[in-house]
Design goal:
This protein has 2 domains: about 90 residues, no CATH class; about 80 residues, ACT domain (Alpha-Beta Plaits), CATH 3.30.70. The chain has 8 helices and 7 strands, in the order ααβββααααβαββαβ. A 4-stranded antiparallel β-sheet has the order 5-6-4-7. It has a 3-stranded antiparallel β-sheet with strand order 1-2-3. Helix 2 packs across helix 4 and helix 3 crosses helix 4.
Amino acid sequence: MNGKPYIAILSTSLHLRVVLWSKIAKHFEEYPGRLKVAKMLVELGLRIDPDGKIYCGPIEMDEAKIARALGVDRRTVKATAKSILEDDFLREIFSKLKPSGAFLRDVAKLLGYGVIEIYADSRMKGILAGAAQAIARRGISIRQAVADDPDLHPEPKLTIITEKPIPGDIIPELLRIEGVNKVVVY
């Protein structure tokens, strides 16, 4: 392959992200509480079924508990789901969301894994690839990589969980990756 299909996928993915967040922001511009709920749904991968019920995988979520966690009224959660279902584009997106699985960062030490957090300019390309190459050169496998969405997190970071603890000498190499500002290894 000459790389064009990969570039098209990246381009389409970036376009969808920009379209999704601009559509959500516009849809809820007069309702900050609903916007807060919609962002949380995306961040956690919670879907909305045709009846307006919210699910985490197969588990139905309680609207009152979602509301309490976000500091909004239960009616705001219900109104957010109803509003999403009334919009064809948003309904299509929110009806197909899925949670991405367990994030291992906080239990990595207990499992004997290593953790690297990379803070970088989220517009830069190749940060994950550069970090993966540096890790692979040390003969270490990656168990998990999670990148914060810059639209949801003011200081997004890339968290990489490795099969074993990472030697500290990797930090200078990671800091040389274009766009990387800070590296934390623990």
